[in-house]
Amino acid sequence: MIKSSLRTLTALVMFPLLFSCAFAQFKSPRSYRAATPAEVKTTKSDAVVHGESCFQQVLFLVACGEGGYAGATSDALKGQAEGSELYDVKSDTDLFNVLGVYSKLCTRVTGKLGKI
Prior knowledge:
By secondary structure, the chain is α+β, with helices and mostly antiparallel strands. It has a four-stranded antiparallel beta sheet. Residues 21-25 have low confidence and may be disordered. It has two helices and four strands; from the N terminus they run αββαββ. The longest helix has 18 residues, at 2-19.
C-alpha cells in the first residue's frame, strides 16, 4: 500500500519536471513600433525612464502577472504627465526557470520621455 502510494506520488512529481518544456508558451512581439526623436518634441534634458512587467508560474498550473512589452511600457509611463510618449526604446526579456517547478519571465524597457 505504501509502496503504491509512493510510486503514484513520484509519478505526479516527476511528470511536470520531465515534460515541462513541452508545455511552455511565451509570446513576444517580433517588432513593436516606437516613436523616433523626429516624431516627438524632444529636448536635450529628456528623462530616461524604465519599466518592468513580470509573469510568474508554478508547475505550469498556477500563473499570475503580465510579462509583455505593453505592460512594461505602461509601467515606464506610469506617473508621467499627460501626452508623454517613449522614444528611442530598448527592450530586454529575462527568463528564470527552476526545472519547470517555478519560472519567472520579465520584460524590461528603457526609453527617453518626450511629448506628443
